[in-house]
Amino acid sequence: MYIRETNFADLNGILKVEREAFNSPKEAALTSDLLADPTAQPLLSLLAFVDEQPAGHILFTTAHLPNAPAVVVSILAPLAVLPQFQKQGVGGSLIKTGLALQSKNGVDVVFVLGHPTYYPRHGFTPAGKHGFKAPYPIPEKDTDAWMVQALRPNIIGSISGNVVCCEALDKPEHWRE
């Protein structure tokens, strides 16, 4: 397996991974919208390849905390792995590579709305417990699905507030786990 940043020529492969991983066109449409959204920039889009075929995709888009404008924030959404490559470390490798590149690019914190037993294995903790609110209210039963990871030491605890996302992600239907 190898992972690399995507380019425009990868769009069909990205959308295929998103559609097949989620067995739905919804995430593929969201991914297409995010990739085209100027308010999502700078973004980081990575593809994992197995046997020269796209096997997984991860996307990080810019966000911000209005009460902490100097803090560089991103949102991980979505992460998709083709069913035949799931439970083989592809998703974890995409997360690890993506977080390392985000850190190198100066990102301070990364948020995700995702499975509350999967993402903690990769260093994420419930964001609400640290005083961070999602762009839209998270249903009570899913509050632990809203998570954060610091990429800079000692930043969690020194900042909090409402996360503001890019326009393509700024719809209430994207904030239900």
How would you describe this structure to a colleague?
This protein has a seven-stranded mixed sheet. The protein has a two-stranded parallel sheet with strand order 7-9. The longest helix is centred in the middle third of the chain and has 15 residues, at 90-104. It has 177 residues and is an alpha+beta fold. It contains three helices and nine strands. Helices cover 21% and strands 27% of the residues. It has a single domain (2-175), classed as Gcn5-related N-acetyltransferase (GNAT) (Aminopeptidase, 3-Layer(aba) Sandwich). It has helices at 11-22, 26-36, 90-104; strands spanning 2-5, 44-50, 53-63, 73-81, 109-113, 125-126, 132-133, 146-150, 161-162.
Question: What's the helix and strand layout?
Answer:
Layout: E1 2-5, H1 11-22, H2 26-36, E2 44-50, E3 53-63, E4 73-81, H3 90-104, E5 109-113, E6 125-126, E7 132-133, E8 146-150, E9 161-162
Helix pairs in contact: 1-2
